[in-house]
Amino acid sequence: MLSVRLICVGKLGEKFWAQAAAEYEKRLGGYCKLEILELPEQRLPQTPSQGEIDAALKKESELIAAKIPSGAAVIAMCVEGKPMSSEQLADYVSDLTVRGTSRLCVLIGGSCGMEESIKQRANLRLSMSPMTFPHHLARVMVLEQLYRALNIVGGGKYHK
Length: 160
Prior knowledge:
Elements: E1 2-9, H1 15-28, E2 32-39, H2 50-67, E3 73-83, H3 86-98, E4 103-108, H4 116-120, E5 124-127, H5 135-153
Parallel strand pairs: 1-2, 1-4, 3-4, 3-5
């Protein structure tokens, strides 16, 4: 069974985000072994300088790097990444497993994004849209798309 680690910077504060994420976590249980790691988002002043943002991203990148499992295929969620349809994501995941990859690690940065050094570690930079989404919503969307992709791979009817 595929092992998926979702590394997220920041916690789900509001109950409705947690409920939505929990629903997809439950659904994914039949398709993969899912682990969600929440890493602390670095605190910044109301109007941070670029230097303060860079320092926060560097600290977050160190925390993320320490949690990426060895041998895992890494997907970094970022606005400049490659857009994919649900079917294309399903094909990507299926191809990984056919080639013998049993671990997938998906990265979601905090409100300032992710440092370039972490994005460079990714096998795939994936974009959900050129629009910007709150990282809490991005987590729910990633979980839903993982569920949809694995359902497609398994021949399920959810996608239709």
